[in-house]
Design brief:
It is a single chain. It contains no helices and nine strands. The chain has strands at 13-15, 27-28, 31-34, 52-54, 70-72, 90-92, 108-111, 127-130, 146-148. The strands form three sheets. A four-stranded antiparallel β-sheet has the order 6-7-8-9, with no helix packed on it. A three-stranded antiparallel β-sheet has the order 1-3-2, with no helix packed on it.
């Protein structure tokens, strides 16, 4: 699913929005072209209308994506039952965004503001909701939607 009225020409995919993400990639007019094929991440479905997959993603301020095959989108519904509502979020396979917190699930989103788990209030700026959580000492996760905080 690319941007409306946008076609993939040869090995160069064009998007209507301007992206300066991939090193060595030139932005032409209002259409950014990436030399690599868009289906980078295996088993990852991109649902946003205008999404770019890059090797190194520094879209979100203070957030570094370390995996070689990650997608940063405006709206993420990759993880079942997990909705990311922030405009600038990154879902990675291995998340080391929060200090002393390691996310081991393959489908986990670390965001700056979490409103994912119903009835759970976010008290820290760096929280991770995972499917299987063994992050916080002395905290056992009994549900698919739990938040481990540093507080």
């Amino acid at each position: 699913m690319l941007c409306p009225r946008v076609r993939v020409v040869s090995r160069c995919t064009c998007y209507v929005q301007v992206y300066v993400l991939c090193p060595g990639v030139r932005v032409v007019s209002r259409c950014t072209c990436y030399v690599q094929v868009y289906v980078l991440c295996p088993g990852v479905r991109v649902v946003s209308r205008c999404t770019c997959c890059v090797h190194v993603c520094v879209l979100c301020p203070g957030v570094r994506v370390v995996s070689r095959c990650e997608c940063c989108v405006q709206v993420y519904v990759l993880c079942p039952g997990v909705r990311v509502v922030s405009r600038c979020e990154c879902c990675v396979h291995v998340c080391v965004l929060c200090p002393r917190v390691r996310v081991v699930s393959r489908c986990t989103c670390c965001v700056q503001v979490y409103v994912l788990c119903p009835g759970v209030r976010v008290v820290s700026r760096c929280e991770c909701c995972v499917q299987v959580c063994v992050l916080c000492p002395g905290v056992r996760v009994v549900s698919r939607c739990e938040c481990c905080v540093q507080v």
